[in-house]
Amino acid sequence: MSTKPRHIALLDEVRARGTVTVEALAEQFGVTLQTVRRDVQRLAEAGLLIRFHGGVRMPTSTTENIAYRQRQELESEGKARIARAVAARVPDGCSLILNIGTTTEAVARALMHHKGLRVITNNLNVAAILSDNPDCEVIIAGGVVRARDRGIVGEATVDFIRLFKVDIGLIGISGIETDGSLRDYDYREVKVARAIIEQSRQVWVAADHSKFGRPAMVHQARLDEIDALFTDTEPPEPFPALLQDAGVECVVAQP
User: Fold this and answer.
1) pLDDT tens, 156-188?
2) Which terminus of the chain has fewer CB atoms gathered within 10 Å of its CB, N or C?
3) Which residues of 153-185 are buried (b: 16+ CB within 10 A; e: fewer)?
4) 110 forms bridges with which residues in the sheet?
5) Do 225 and 203 contact (CB within 8 A), yes or no?
């Protein structure tokens, strides 16, 4: 699907309101009903919206994530800003673990000019990106490769991660719920993320604004287990207080 600004703004509006009528969207964006219906149709075909009679809502599955190719395009500008903010805080000559996700892949691209990095990853896309940086050593975890996104998961992956103790563990997530829990969809991926948290001196989370309040089935961590959250807009209520109470530094990547 295209990533035209109106589509992104439309998704943000539906996400903020939960459900919304086609008429309200047309009025909000100053376009015709026909234009909104066409936009909604394209977004629904991409799996990013659910249509019902007279309106639309966000997908609310707690058991299945959006398809990888769709996640690559969704919030891509925000993810790029997050990646630049993360890269600005990563010093040369440090060790990192990067896990599965389109945001961590954006971070990998933003690290292309860093020097002396040692990066451990269970993401073949991250490995392919950073292998083009001659000043970065890339170590790939063993395990089972998921065809849909080239993530590596399984008990062998967990055992491999536990061999290391790194300066920074950077993880992506599928949702941060209002109880302060970080959640994801695949329990195998979560087990790897847990190992990354345990083996990292600093734990950073990279999550765009769409992840706030998004439900997912598997508990991954609590906010008080991470040190910094990198996102692209100010978190909505009640997350500022939750982050403060948990002692998490919130870094909002500016345009």
Assistant:
1) 999 999 999 999 999 999 889 999 999 998 899
2) C
3) bbeebbebbeebebbbbbbbbbbbbeebebbbb
4) none
5) yes
What burial class does residue 39 get, using C-beta atoms within 10 Å of its C-beta: 0-12 exposed, 13-18 middle, 19+ buried?
Answer: buried
pLDDT for 71-99, tens place per residue? 545 567 889 999 999 999 999 999 999 99
Provide the CB-side half-sphere exposure for 253 (13 A, CA). Answer: 23
Phi-psi region of 248 (alpha: psi -120 to 50; beta: other; left: phi over 0): beta
- The answer to whether 109 and 131 have CB atoms below 8 angstroms apart is no
Q: Can you tell me the distance from the alpha carbon of 154 to that of 82, in angstroms, rounded to the nearest whole number?
A: 28
Domain coordinates in residue numbering, the chain: 5-60, 69-252
| CATH class of the 69-252 domain in this structure | alpha beta
pTM, two decimal places: 0.75
